[in-house]
Amino acid sequence: xxxxxxxxxxxxxxxxxxxxxxxxxxxxxxxxxxxxxxxxxxxxxxxxxxxxxxxxxxxxxxxxxxxxxxxxxxxxxxxxxxxxxxxxxxxxxxxxxxxxxxxxxxxxxxxxxxxxxxxxxxxxxxxxxxxxxxxxxxxxxxxxxxxxxxxxxxxxxxxxxxxxxxxxxxxxx
Length: 173
Hints:
Blueprint: H1 3-13, H2 16-37, H3 46-68, E1 69-72, E2 75-78, H4 93-129, H5 148-164
Antiparallel strand pairs: 1-2
Helix pairs in contact: 2-3, 3-4
């Protein structure tokens, strides 16, 4: 049997393809639920990206675990080769090293591509959402000092009108 054919046969026997397919479907459903519900829960935008990143990082881990372990009626057991012999006795150190490498590479990619792009957008959104007005005090330039209250009233009226305006509608009064 060709080496590639024997590899696919071993992957099928250990149900790696089945685990990868089920993981992909569950991850896709999780991402869809997160993308739909997180905005209504008023969670930040980065939480949806975090769910996507964790889903992508979890796929290689699920595939490695499907290769190494198998579920039997007696419980979860270490997988054996096709001829029944136990695979190498090197322990699980290599598996933890592989998982750590995937997490480190994923974290580096997140720092490089995720956060540097998110910071300017978040700063721009914060700048756009803050609406403010500065009203300088009016000076009474008339000769009649009895009308001095009018200058203070105009400034107060502008400030109070600004606070109640609905900036989402096109009609302002």
